[in-house]
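During the no-cost extension, the postdoctoral fellow (Dr. R.K.) reprocessed legacy sequence entries with the updated structure-token encoder. One reprocessed record is reproduced below for audit purposes.
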Amino acid sequence: MALPTAPPSYAEAMASKEQLFPGQQQPYPMQQPFPGQQQPFSGQQPYPMQQPFPGQQQAFPGQQPYPMQQPMPQPPTVPMHPSWAFVQPSPSPGYSSGYGPATFSPYPDPSSSGSIEAFAMESWNNQKIRHTFIRKVYAILMAQLMVTFGIVTVFTFCDPVRKYVRNNRILYYASFAVFISTYLVIACCSGIRRRHPWNLILLAIFTLGMSYMAGMLTTYHNTKSVMLCIGITSLVCLAVTIFCFQTKFDFTSCHGLMFGLMMALFITGLVMVFTVPFGYLPWLQTFYAGLGAIAFTLFLAYDTQLLLGNKRYSLSPEEHVFGALCLYIDIVYIFMFLLQLFGSRD
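Re-encoded structure tokens follow.
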């Protein structure tokens, strides 16, 4: 039985190859370098891929950095707004929001069914939240007005209370101090006016203070004048509210007009204070009362559109106490200025 032999070595294989193919010294074609190929040895130039690309800049010291290493441009500064205000972003062309800020769909294709459903759902949620907010604000406002005009009715029709209030003016100054202090706390401290039940407690104290001020003012006018001014105030407030629900004019962008009216009202009030020693001027009193009624009617339109939320600025849905406070002040001041303008003094 023959034993298996070991395979031939490399030298033996090469020798047998030489015997079979004598005179063949050239290597196989695959062993030759490719046309244009350069050897990476013996100090030759590097491969073409090792050379820098055309226009490419080296990032070594002394050379310019890559374009991506340059500092990024700073974003434009955004103006600050009050804590109660929400600035509505610019909506896409052809879209107008009914209530609240504009919303954008997270889907990339606006024509897809998922995009349409998500957009409709988000719009419905915003409208539902805004409607709930409006109902809450007007419910609080109605409670405030009922308390105020109830006190006004008692001061007007009850003669003992009427005489007592007119003879004790110190209570008027005390109510004015309560009015100013509670108003500053509610208007300036956003954390307190959003915290239940402190916001409602402060709003109740504020309402009582301002109701006493309005009631004392009615004690200096006869009953018919007071009832007439209450009716005119109700009609004016109803007309302004309906107008704000229907109009496309944006009162929230008229900050310059509102500031000008307030400055005119403030300067006229100072002139009246300094002319008191020289006697009563009926024409100046009439001008001041008319200007105040016009100014606070425009303020009522401004605050109503802030409440609706379909313009440039809108109130946050968490600011139901602040929204009711603004509308209440506008209505009561309209009543006071109309009483000065049309009321007959006793």
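Residues 86-121 have pLDDT under 50 and may be disordered. The chain is about 60% helix and 0% strand. The remaining legacy entries will be reprocessed before the final report is submitted.
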